[in-house]
Write a structure and sequence with these properties.
Layout lengths: L4 H28 L17 H8 L1 H34 L5 H13 L2 H15 L6 H27 L2 H8 L4 H30 L2 H6 L7 H8 L6 H34 L1
Helix pairs in contact: 1-11, 2-11, 3-6, 3-8, 3-10, 4-6, 6-8, 7-8, 8-11
């Protein structure tokens, strides 16, 4: 199907406008992180690295960054294990209630974050009697990060089929050997993509974190929220936001490249 020239121009203009609305504010944040004017007047005044230096000396921001990375890595690791196990169970086996289980696994990513946060807060504090902290935040993040890994792995398993695994079993290989030499190499890029996306999702999360992290701890998004309207902190917040943009783009870009490369390989 070939679109007419006016249609192509309209779609191009609409695409450019949409991308500008999304990315122009992000570019402004990065630009203001180098702006020496604390009022962020336009056009920007002389460039400076002063705010970046202040970020490095701000122990609260650095500690919050470390907490975000720690929570994101552990939550992504948990999601990789349980998401992969769930994907194998639903893609390779048939059992009663299979569709219901699939819905229950995917549901956390569809629920509003505030609902998930309140539910987990009540579960930890009221039902289980657990004090909120970093561990509870990791568990909370893992609940929705599992969905990302699950979707990546189950899609790959369905596309690959079970022919090679059955051939390996016919040749006498045990289940662990088949997984190590046949299944895992085919799933490697999907697992890495799912893990990167899970980390990015956890790193940026703020609503569920607010209800499950507890007092005395901060992730980077919460630190931004707490310091956004404090005097003289806006320039540093812009620097942190710029860091967040980069940290969020890298795993998403890598996951997209990995998914694209694996899809191309599957067609060969």
């Amino acid at each position: 199907m070939r679109a007419s020239k006016p249609t192509r121009y309209f779609l191009l203009a609409f695409t450019v406008l949409g991308l500008a609305l999304i990315y122009a504010p992000l570019a402004l944040i990065v630009l203001n992180s180098f702006n020496s004017d604390t009022t962020f007047g336009w056009p920007p005044s002389a460039p400076t690295l002063r705010w970046w230096g202040r970020l490095l000396s701000d122990h609260g921001a650095v500690h919050a960054l470390g907490t975000s990375v720690f929570v994101g890595v552990i939550a992504a690791a948990i999601a990789l294990v349980f998401g992969t196990m769930a994907a194998f169970a639903l893609a390779r086996y048939r059992f009663f209630g299979r569709d219901t289980v699939s819905l229950l696994i995917i549901l956390p990513i569809a629920l509003p974050g505030i609902v998930t946060g309140i539910a987990l807060n009540n579960a930890f504090r009221t039902i289980l009697g657990i004090n909120l902290g970093v561990a509870t935040a990791i568990i909370a993040h893992a609940t929705f990060c599992i969905v990302v890994v699950f979707n990546n792995v189950v899609a790959r398993l369905r596309r690959l089929g079970s022919g090679l695994e059955e051939a390996s079993a016919d040749l006498g290989a045990r289940g662990a050997t088949t997984f190590r030499l046949v299944t895992f190499p085919m799933l490697r890029s999907a697992l890495l993509a799912g893990g990167l996306l899970a980390f990015a999702l956890s790193f940026d999360e703020i609503i569920v974190t607010t209800f499950t992290l507890g007092a005395g701890h901060q992730t980077l998004p919460i630190w931004i929220l707490d310091n956004l309207f404090r005097p003289n902190q806006a320039p540093v917040v812009n620097v942190v936001a710029a860091v967040l943009i980069v940290v969020s783009i890298v795993p998403v870009y890598l996951a997209q490249r990995l998914s694209g490369d694996s899809a191309s390989s599957g067609r060969l």
